[in-house]
Amino acid sequence: MTKDNIVNQQRVRLQPDDGLGPTSDIGSRLRALYGAVQEEGVPDQLLDLLEKLDNAERTQTKQSSQGGE
Amino acid sequence: MATETPSFKREMLSTLPSLRAFAVSLTGKHDKADDLVQDTVMKAWAKQSSFEMGTNIKAWLFTILRNEFYSQMRKRGREVQDSDGAFTERLSVHPSQYGAMDLEDFKKALAELPDDQREAIILIGASGFSYEEAAEICDCAVGTMKSRVSRARSRLQEMLKVSGESDYGPDALSTQVTTTNHSF
Q1: Is A14 on the interface with B (CB under 8 A)?
Q2: How far is B131 from chain A (nearest CA, A)?
Q3: Which domains does chain B have, with CATH numbers?
Q4: What's the whole-model pTM score?
């Protein structure tokens, strides 16, 4: 298992052979644009939605486990 | 079963910022991107029984979002394409070694790529997927993904070189780029 991890890490490290790695201009510009959006954070409406979906599911699970009356 | 739900939600939460950035790159607009992410969250929630915890939730969510985007595009008949395709709106000035102007040029170059090449270079170069994962997300062969990324990279390099050299007198291509810049 440890062996696999090492192999995996090497695979990841070797991959930026594609010209998009840490030293590439295009790669770092891409990540700057992408990162700017990522850092804006997740809008409240999305967090609320996830919360509602989760709550709805909990209520449903509770009701069905109580015998569905 | 009861323990699965909270961690599904948590895993989803941790993927949302990256998923949203990918959505912005596809739609070019923040409001459309947020609608798309919202539709994706609902779809994913409904399909969560088909997801195996411990497998790659990020790739799974990106696949759902991308399918949702293209199916909505087909339904709307591709209507108004925005003046630029990718990251069109407000580039928040980001602390980096690049000036805002430099990134503006890059953004425009990115927007001129064909859709399949743009999403390929974003998934590999920014979202952090392997070629195998990106190929699965886009439902294409790994070799196809590699060639899309490679074509996107050469095209971007070419366009950036041209815009960098435009001080020395415009040629046909840089004139074309300049014209496009004024269209939004």
Answers
A1: no
A2: 9
A3: 7-82 (1.10.1740.10), 98-184 (1.10.10.10)
A4: 0.76
